Every structure is written in C-alpha cells, then in structure tokens.
C-alpha cells in the first residue's frame, strides 16, 4: 500500500476530546477550484482509516463515526458540508492500536461533485474521548492482503 503525503488527513492525530458532537479532525485536501472530479469511474480511490493509539473514555461508552466531507472552505462546516462517505460508529473495543477501521471506495456521481476542500469529520457519541489517535488517507492501493496459514 502506498501513502501519498498530499492525500493524508491524519497521521497519528488525536481524536477530538469534546463532548458528543461533530468535529473536523486532521488536515484538509485542497482539490483546486476547477478539480472536483476526484473519483472518476476509471480511477478507484479509497479512504482508509486506522487506529494509531487505542480509543478510550472515562466510562467506556464513547463511539466514533467518521465522515468524508467536502466544502467550499477549508474549515469544513460540520452541518452544511457535502457528505460523501459515512462509517459505522466504532466502539472502544473495536478501536485498538493497529486496527484498520474502514476501507471504502470514494463514490462518484455527476450529480454530487466534490467541493474544493476535502476533509474528515469525527462524530462522537455517548461520551467524550480521553485518548485515541487515528490515521486517515486516500490511496489507490488499499490494504487488502491478509496473512493466512500455508495449507500445504
């Protein structure tokens, strides 16, 4: 798997530790004023989200859900930005160090184009996080290889 630093949202970036709500996390990618055809049908591009440091909260009831969103400003609006991908909510038990939480192909639609800035939103539910770091990036070579025992 190849990671292009210009297509990286988070590299061991701490989760937002605010109360339940939606937050912009990590960096944004400037697609340019005229380049909103990020995911054209011939080019598969994938969002990958993995855990660098395990998620934790005081009572163990926090969940994190992630949204790939775009907007016309780098400070992507958490309520009016265009939402392109939505993950399921991840519990602390699922979000252990080294876990790959999500691999998803970027959607393509002529009707719903990407706005200029692309970023990642964190939706916190249950309670605030006290710890946790994520990695998130776009790649055309997602992590799909898994070691298996030799059957010979």
Show the helix and strand layout.
Blueprint: E1 8-14, E2 21-30, E3 46-57, E4 63-71, E5 82-86, E6 90-91, E7 100-105, E8 117-125, E9 129-139
Antiparallel strand pairs: 1-9, 2-8, 3-7, 3-9, 4-5, 4-6, 4-8
Compute the gyration radius: what is it?
16 Å
- Stretches where pLDDT is under 50 for at least 5 consecutive residues are none
Distance between the termini: 27 Å
The largest sheet is: 5 strands, antiparallel
The amount of helix comes to: under 10%
The averaged pLDDT comes out at 88
3D architecture notes:
With 152 residues, this protein is mostly beta strands. It has no helices and nine strands. The strands form two sheets. Strands 2, 4, 5, 6 and 8 form a five-stranded antiparallel beta sheet that branches. It is globular, with a radius of gyration of 16 Å. The mean pLDDT is 88.
List keywords for this structure.
152 residues, five-stranded antiparallel beta sheet, four-stranded antiparallel beta sheet, 0% helix, globular
Task: Give a nutshell description of this structure.
The protein is built from no helices and 9 strands. The protein has 152 residues and is mainly β.
């Amino acid at each position: 798997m190849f990671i292009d630093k210009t297509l990286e949202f988070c590299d061991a970036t701490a989760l937002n530790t605010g109360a339940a709500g939606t937050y912009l996390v990590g960096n944004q990618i400037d697609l340019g004023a005229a380049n909103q055809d990020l995911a054209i049908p011939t080019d598969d591009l994938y969002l990958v989200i993995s855990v660098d440091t395990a998620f934790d909260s005081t009572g163990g009831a926090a969940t994190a859900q992630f949204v790939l969103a775009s907007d016309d400003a780098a400070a992507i609006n958490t309520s009016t930005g265009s939402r392109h991908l939505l993950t399921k909510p991840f519990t602390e038990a699922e979000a252990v160090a080294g876990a790959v939480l999500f691999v998803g192909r970027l959607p393509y639609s002529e009707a719903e184009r990407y706005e200029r800035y692309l970023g990642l939103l964190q939706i916190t539910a249950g309670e605030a996080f006290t710890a946790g770091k994520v990695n998130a990036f776009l790649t055309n070579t997602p992590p799909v290889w898994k070691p298996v025992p030799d059957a010979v």
